[in-house]
Write a structure and sequence with these properties.
globular; single chain; repressor; DNA-binding; Dna Ligase, domain 1; transcription; alpha+beta; FUR; about 45% helix; two-stranded antiparallel sheet; 3-stranded mixed sheet; zinc
């Protein structure tokens, strides 16, 4: 088990969340995946090892992780929600053809948040940035 997964499980225990084998597997899969999987993809990947696990179990556990601020739900309009266990400040590039999502780092846009607060009087708590394009694989198919 990676140190990152171990730390996350300890954090859940501290918050009174019981660690079931399914919960451990879902969290490990998310933390090791760079693909931003859907709940269905997580279910399909883990169902051979956990034949009694349902899609509802995956969704319920994802909700627990989201409430614990360990996972982010990414929604992009018409497609299924995707889940990201990297809760650090980062942004996403989304392929408009296949839906693949890649992370990229960029210096914080805190100054944009501050400008928005000054212009609107809102208290801004965060932002989300996605860029859209075509990934290398889809571009090379043309």
């Amino acid at each position: 088990m990676s140190t990152k997964v171990h730390h996350a499980l300890e954090q859940l225990k501290t918050n009174g969340v019981r660690i079931t084998p399914q919960r451990h597997a879902i969290l490990s899969f998310l933390m090791e995946s760079m693909e931003h999987p859907t709940a269905d993809e997580i279910y399909r990947a883990l169902s051979p090892k956990f034949p009694n696990m349902s899609v509802a179990t995956v969704y319920n556990n994802l909700k627990v992780f989201i409430e614990a601020n360990m996972v982010r739900e990414l929604t992009y309009g018409d497609s299924s929600s995707r889940f990201d266990a990297d809760v650090s400040d980062h942004y996403h590039v989304v392929c408009q053809q296949c839906g693949k999502i890649k992370d990229f780092m960029y210096s914080s846009l805190r100054d944009v948040e501050e400008t928005a607060e000054q212009a609107t009087g809102f208290k801004v708590y965060g932002h989300r940035l996605e860029l859209y394009g075509v990934c290398q694989e889809c571009a090379s198919d043309k």
